[in-house]
Amino acid sequence: MTLPLAHLGHYLWIFYVLPVVIVIGGILRTTIKEKKTARAEEANDKSGRDDSRATDTDEIAAPDASAKSPGPGVPPEHLGP
Questions:
Q1: Is residue 18 very low, low, confident or very high in pLDDT (cuts 50, 70, 90)?
Q2: Radius of gyration over every alpha carbon of the chain, rounded to an integer in angstroms
Q3: Distance (Å, rounded) from C-alpha 9 to C-alpha 52?
Q4: What pTM was estimated for this model as a whole?
């Protein structure tokens, strides 16, 4: 039995269209998700509610300006006042 490969070239466009469809689908999904999030935030702003909550990363402060760290390998006595 011989495989019908004579017309295989007619269907090669599928390999070009499929990645394009996947990318467009991803873009549409992200856009819809961002619009939905923006609408939810806008609704929260109008109602006066604040659903944002402090997380551990919000509580982490930037290093104090007095704590100088020149980098690894520099002894602390060379930091100065």
A1: very high
A2: 29
A3: 55
A4: 0.47
Domain boundaries, the chain: 15-46
Helix (H) or strand (E) holding 21: helix 13-47
Query: The tokens of 54 are what?
Result: 């402090």
For 19, 21, 26, 27, the CA distances from 13, given in Å and listed in that order, are 11, 12, 20, 22
Q: What is the predicted pLDDT for the residue at 49? A: 58
- d(CA 50, CA 27) in angstroms, rounded, equals 29
CB 73, CB 79: distance < 8 Å: no
> Nearest CA to 41 among 31, 52, 30?
52
| Res. 48: pLDDT tops 60 | yes
